[in-house]
Amino acid sequence: MTTDGPAIDGLVADRALLSRTSTAERVAGILRSRIIEGWFPPGTRLAEDGIGNALGVSRNTLREAFRLLSHERLLTHELNRGMFVRTLTVEDVVDLYRVRRLVECGVVRTVSGPHPGLPVVAAAVADGEDALRRSEWQALGTANISFHRALVALAGSPRSDELMSGILAELRLVFHVMADPQRFHEPYLERNRGILHRLQDGDGPGAAEDLEVYLHDAEQQLVEAYAQRQAAPAG
């Protein structure tokens, strides 16, 4: 698998986000967003020429962006083959959810009344409901990721936001292991709505308890999916 078609077309549109003084960090941010949105699944080879031409950046700038994303554990370099979107392991899944419980539940637990960030959380739930009505499962997964990003943003901490951005990008790579994204994502939309209602009522501790169970259930589903994939005979 390599980058082509709609994924490259989308990057052409992203070119407008870059100025003549664009940096590798901006390029990395665009590619990170595309990974979060599900455009580049695990194992995708990132073709330098196609991506560089689409974004209108030099090869050196693109390679620096690749290096930054490699440090974030999103990309991996294979000798004589190039740069690939990383395929995560079950150990990665366990560690990601360990960090998610620490960060997300910790933030949510502090909400005790009206919060200016809750409309963003509500908008993510609404986006999920819209994706469900349209049967767009990739969009439903993206809305779910936006929901969790909005939860962490309630802390008002740029450092927490930056940490969560990397975690959620890795998480999107994990989600690709689920053979039926509708079956995986749809039940969590209702749980997102329930957490939102708890927060709107000022019940941060109750929302945190619900979220703790939610994250445990999701982790178990993903771990089981990884186990099934490893047990499946090679085709």
Keywords:
mainly alpha, transcription regulation, transcription, WH-like_DNA-bd_sf, single chain, DNA-binding, DNA-binding transcription factor activity, 69% helix, 235 residues, Four Helix Bundle (Hemerythrin (Met), subunit A), Arc Repressor Mutant, subunit A
Describe this entry's structure for a reader.
Residues 21-88 form the HTH gntR-type domain. InterPro entries: GntR_C (IPR011711), TF_FadR/GntR_C (IPR008920), Tscrpt_reg_HTH_GntR (IPR000524), WH-like_DNA-bd_sf (IPR036388), WH_DNA-bd_sf (IPR036390). Keywords: DNA-binding, Transcription, Transcription regulation. This is GntR family transcriptional regulator. Pfam families: FCD, GntR. With 235 residues, this protein is mainly alpha-helical. It folds into two domains: 5-85, Orthogonal Bundle (Arc Repressor Mutant, subunit A); 90-231, Up-down Bundle (Four Helix Bundle (Hemerythrin (Met), subunit A)). Helices cover 69% and strands 3% of the residues. The protein has ten helices and two strands, in the order ααααββαααααα. It has helices at 5-14, 24-36, 48-55, 59-71, 90-109, 118-133, 137-153, 158-175, 181-200, 204-231, and strands at 75-78, 82-85. The protein has a two-stranded antiparallel ribbon. Helix 5 (90-109) packs across helix 7 (137-153) and helix 5 (90-109) packs antiparallel against helix 10 (204-231). The longest helix has 28 residues, at 204-231. It is globular. The model has no long low-confidence stretch (mean pLDDT 89).
